[in-house]
């Protein structure tokens, strides 16, 4: 597909890399020649310099023959105008706009036909939703759902007192007392696909596939205490914090929100009357303590500075806060901060990128194409969901008879309301959702590609 | 520095070279010229072994390929390719001197067309074919060919941009379409099609098939190796006119042809470089024809039409840096020769197969000069340079100025070095000009009827470096001599 990306910022560049990797023809549009040049040097994409909302620049970038426009400049108004203009030139164009200002959320949806937007994305809202999901199951660093939320791949980190240390994988199901599958392990920054003899060690990060309804059993049997989150401390008062605090106050959770800027505090206090807005500097540790850090069940670091978020998270760790969530906006490869135990690391950019990539895949709408893709194990492996239809090869054959490609693992089969962790005798049939995990290079876009 | 990746790409370059030697070898086999067959067979063997060894040594290439690697890779690739390409000449005994053989190959790949062979008609057909084919491969560039057929960059990495930038001529190199592989493929498809048309037009004029193939290759790469001692002088006026037309066509920026394929013909005719190029062609042709009107009979031109034909042919041949000749322009009046000297330095369009400074750079330099003069008079005025209605990046302007400085510096040093040879100033300076701009014939000793055979070894080495520097636009070769390139970080 021919895709135009307007805005070569953090998100634009991540999208360009990912979509170009999947074989699409990417043209980037940005007014800044320097950032365009660095993107062109790094990825196999083309660049057009100029204002992406101007008609002649869009024409230059080939909007007439493009299939999709993704407007992700820093300014919402430009994104809207860009989509509207481009769609006027090429009525067959799909458009995706990033809208971050909450004040526009309603009209962007209600007026989507007038603006000619196929989809809006809001990275801040997505990040807030993701954090809320994590807060509901403390103990997991990351959750990715598949098969309409019936199956999950969760990330766990083995601490020194974990029951799983020095246990071979073949003995895993005896401890968890429910059927789960370890599909990838990251040890010392390297992702491996383990077999039954693989012995788990302290510091390993596990990616575990499990049906959603067994998650609480899994947590209990692993000795990770599931306590209901009652008190959450949010550091930083940006957009993500607003969405998150709003969601938490609705579930009657006690929220402390620390923000440095007085005007911003006033605005937040106006919009969120039920939460405690505290004006103060997050780097001031005595402030955090006096506001009850030690008695909080979760600490969420959401300031605009990655470095400050890291320091706040580490400080929370020292104060034994049970759950810590850190936002990282700039850092792409989180493996450098792996052993800092910052808890869950949330990247609004990557979340948003995944949503858009999913839309692109759905647009292709080919038989057997991937439905959902999540990158796991720091992007070293991909979990992909496929829908099985009547043309899918090897329907109804037991898995042990199939020759799969190297580094491909079938980790879950979801049928109706049940989700199965497959063994050699499992089969898949028309209408099932199958989740596979693949590591190594290359994205698997078609189900038939998993066979050797 | 990522030596392994560089080694791997270079081994691919050599493999492609060996692959393209096979047709030459088959031709020699058909001619039952077994000495030449042996020479090509051994060369292919040597190249296969060397590239196999390189692939083996560089099998675990790391990632990380940046501008520096791109330049070094292209510079080295071309030197290696030239060295190995000369082996058949040398082994078959047709060019017994190794330095001469290297000179001939470099001249071929860089599409110069400067020859050290006194009588090309005595060479085997296979050797002549290989000489002309080196033009064709060097014209569009072997790395561009590699980019079109092999996924050397993998699917993800954009580093191939550094390779394209280092090998393709012009002040600002860009892609035609987002995918590098398709860009390279489009360029080669246009190139192959144009070459094919050239070949067919030549056939229609009654040219023998072998001559037509060689001439089409040499024209396409804007090279200029002839297979006759008098270049194209003995062919019919029709054939000469076809050559004029195709030399000019190959001197046009190939992105223009892509625009024509996209049916954006209007944009092509609005392109400032395109207009400048054709303006220079027409103006020089008529100026020379006018200048020749008094001496036409002395030169043996019977009509104004014939004068115009020779004038147009020589102008296109020199401007596009091809170097074919139909008449001995060394006998022309000084004004005409001076025009040709100017054309030598200007060269063809950016993104074409021709050499020289390129019309795009000339355009930019003239505009930058005009701006500087204006700013001297009105120091506070702010002015932006526009080309085709678009603002030109200031870095491109600076780079072009730097390019001109490097170009002149190399030119001056080379002329000094060649002057150690006991040649006249005209011979020495035009030899350097003709090699640096990848043209071929200069004036006097190295003129249309002469060869480079009598120059000393030192001069030949200097000219070899000049030819490579000219084809690769100086920096990939200059960078190999810079200590900073080889420093570890």
CATH class of the domain at 2-121 in chain A: Alpha Beta
Structural class of chain B: mainly alpha
Q: Which consecutive residue ranges of chain A, at least 5 long each, have pLDDT under 50?
A: none
| Major sheet summary line of chain A | 6 strands, parallel
Distance between the termini of chain B: 9 Å
- Overall, the morphology of chain B is globular
Span between termini of chain A: 27 Å
What's the CATH H-level superfamily name of the domain at 2-121 in chain A?
NAD(P)-binding Rossmann-like Domain
Oligomer status: heterodimer
Gyration radius of chain A (Cα, Å) is: 23 Å
Task: Please give the count of helices of chain B.
Answer: 23
Number of strands of chain A: 22
Biggest pleated-sheet summary of chain B: 2 strands, antiparallel
CATH architecture of the domain at 2-121 in chain A, please?
A: 3-Layer(aba) Sandwich
**Helix content, binned percent of chain B:** 55-70%
Which structural category do the helix and sheet elements of chain A fall into? Answer: alpha/beta
Name the overall outline of chain A.
globular
Identify the notable features of this structure and list them briefly.
heterodimer; A: 452 residues; alpha/beta; Rossmann fold; Alpha-Beta Plaits; six-stranded parallel sheet; 14 helices; 31% helix; B: 489 residues; mainly alpha; two-stranded antiparallel ribbon; 23 helices; 1% strand
Task: Explain the overall architecture.
The complex is a heterodimer of chains A (452) and B (489). Chain A is α/β, with parallel strands linked by helices. Among the domains of chain A are: 2-121, Rossmann fold, CATH 3.40.50; 231-321, Rossmann fold; 364-450, Regulator of K+ conductance, C-terminal domain (Alpha-Beta Plaits, 2-Layer Sandwich), CATH 3.30.70.1450. In chain A, 31% of the residues lie in helices and 25% in strands. Chain A has helices at residues 10-21, 33-42, 55-60, 76-89, 102-110, 112-115, 123-136, 172-176, 215-221, 239-250, 262-271, 285-290, 306-318, 348-364; strands at 2-6, 25-30, 46-49, 68-71, 94-98, 119-121, 142-146, 151-157, 181-187, 190-192, 205-211, 231-235, 254-259, 276-279, 298-301, 323-327, 344-346, 370-376, 381-387, 408-415, 418-420, 433-439. A 6-stranded parallel sheet of chain A has the order 3-2-1-4-5-6, with helices on both faces. Chain A has a 6-stranded parallel sheet with strand order 14-13-12-15-16-17, with helices on both faces. In chain A, helix 7 packs across helix 10 and helix 7 packs across helix 14 (348-364). The two termini of chain A are 27 Å apart. The model of chain A has no long low-confidence stretch (mean pLDDT 85). Chain B is an all-alpha fold. Chain B is 65% helix and 1% strand. Chain B is built from 23 helices and 2 strands. Chain B has a two-stranded antiparallel sheet with strand order 1-2. In chain B, strand 1 (386-387) and strand 2 (390-391) form a beta hairpin. In chain B, helix 10 (209-220) runs parallel beside helix 11 (237-250) and helix 14 crosses helix 16. Chain B is globular and about 60 Å long. In chain B, 53% of the residues are buried. Chain A binds chain B through residues 2, 17, 20-21, 23, 25-27, 33, 39-46, 441-442, and chain B through 66-67, 153-162, 174-175, 177-182, 393.
